[in-house]
Structure formats: structure tokens, C-alpha cells
Amino acid sequence: MTLSDNIIQRIRQQGPLRFEAFMDMCLYYPDLGYYTSPRSKIGPTGDFYTSPCLTPVFGTLIGKQLEEMWRILEEPPFTIVEYGAGTGVLCRDILAYLKQNHRLYDQLRYCIIEKSPVMRAIEKSHLGEKVSWHDSLEEIPDLIGCILSNELIDTFAVHPVVMDQQLMEVFVDYNLTTGFQELLKPAPEELSHYLDELAVTLPPGFRTEINLQALSWIETIASHLQRGYVMTIDYGYESVDLYQPGRSQGTLRCYRNHTTNQRLYEHIGTQDITTYVNFSALRHWGAKVGLTESGLTDQGHFLLALGFNESIRAFFSAEPNILQAARHIATISHRLLLDMGCKFKVLIHQKGVHGQGLMGLSLMGEGKR
Asked: What is the share, in percent, of the chain residues with pLDDT greater than 90?
């Protein structure tokens, strides 16, 4: 039975599904969901690129920031927890950098929380030393270090809502004539409360998404991190930008074969479904659950502050063809600093840390949105 058949069967048995449940099935249904199926997803043969797959320099600079965090924490046994490690490329490059610091590396553990069996198998095929795999933070005691995620929160299933006479939530129904179709039902209090907490008033007809899973995620992190940092890298906006009139139809979209579309009910299980992250929500609920904000900047300024220009030139210094090296540097710099660099934000929280600022946030005034 196909994934579409499974979703249709569930609708017939239970009635219309909340879109959040539909999206979760599309992405994570066992063996058939986008992230649980063996189809290639990242890189030239997949559907999209991530920053780590463009160059090892990205992981090197993340490693540099982690090394500074370790020093600020007074050099304790250090744990890195990476949520959703994808193909494991970021982990590989971070460890390659940190291995140069013997005192840090000797007392380092790198824990990956990966819910996709397919991605976990890919990671295990080339990662080994220092790395362990876990189902949840509950399995990782004495957590002092940094909890890291890159393009994680945009993969959480969301609740689309539309403002009518009252706030309405999007559900998904099915019939033989029209196929999958959306319908609206009055939104429960938890969705209205989300907007109230952020002091957001939607105008009539405005559609947007609410990511409740992100709030549960940050609450879990805050309760398990003893001391250290949370580094969240993803594409998105703060509320002041997210709820502009130009985004009145929301930010839900699909990635397939390196192109985007808004055909949410086609290619089920074979295309990514994603949405922009609300960084105001992460900041607000982070503070509510006991995390202190270190800062928010964009990826371009974050990488520049960590020495991107010097690192990318050093990486290509052995290239015998100077023109070829220059073209590579220009292409990668454009992608990481300008294209993805503007769309992606870096939000860092801290817990039990006082005083010293972080190198990656030293250009925060220029990159903050």
C-alpha cells in the first residue's frame, strides 16, 4: 500500500486529519515517509543542498565556535548533541577540526539524535570514533556542552491557520472526485494562545503556520542541558517579518529535484515539506523555560565573524589552478554568505554561563533581523 493509500485509509477511519498529522505522515511514516524512505535527499542527486555539503569549511567554523564555548565553560568534559545529523557531514567536519585540540578531543563525546533509520544508517556508514546514536536526550546524562541543530526545526510538522471570523485550523480531507482537499475548523485554544503570547494579531484572510513541536523541543532541551549552549541554525524570520502582508499565504512549500513548489498534496512521500522558522517564538519560549539568549544573527555574519574568508582561502590554497580556485571560492562564498547566508539565522541560547560573548555573534548588530 502506498503512503497516499495509508493516509486515505486513516481519513476514512477517523475523519479529516489536522494538517499537522498529514504532514507528519508525509515526512516520517515508517519506510514510506520522505525522511524514512531510502530515496536520496541531500546534495546533487537529492532535492536540496545544506550548508555542510557545500564545503568542509562550514563544519570547521562551527567547530571553532564550539571550541570557544568549551573554553568559556572552563574546559570541562564536553558533549556535543546534534539533532538530525542528515548524512553526518557536519559531524565529520566538526570532529576533524576539534581533533587538533587534544585536550578537548580526549574528553569529547558527540551524540547524534536521529529519528530516521535511513539517515542513521548513512551516518553510521562513515562515522565512528567519538560518535554515539540516541533516540532522545533522556539517554544522554550529565549534559554539559552544546546542543546543535542545522535545518532541523523546519522539518517539524506544523499547524496552518487562517484568520476568518475567528482563528481557523487547516484540516485535510479526501474524496474520490477531488482527491485531497483542505477544510477549516475552529482552532483550539493552544493555537490562539501561541499568537497571543507573541502579541500577534492576524488580519482577516491571513494564513500562517504554528510550530508547536518547536516549543516542545526547546522545553525538552532546557530541562536536560545542565550547563552550556544551544545553537540553532535554520531559515526563517522573526515575527515582525514573518507576518508581513507579502506572506499572507504562509510559508509552506515543497522541495523536489532542487525546485520548490506549493503542491502539498502531490508526490506524497517523495518530496520534502517545510516551512520557515519563527525565531521570535524560539526566543520567547526559550526565555520562558530558563534559557538565556546569547544572540541572534544571520548565517553570513556568523561565518564571517568566525573567519570564513581566511578559512575558505586556506582550504583552496593547494589548488594548482588559481582561476579554478577563485571560481570555487566565489561560488561557495555567494551561497553561504549571501544566498543561504541571508535566509538562514543562527540563534544561540545559553544556560549556566555568564559573561563572555561569543566570537560568532561579534557581528550580530549587522546581521540581526
From this structure: 84
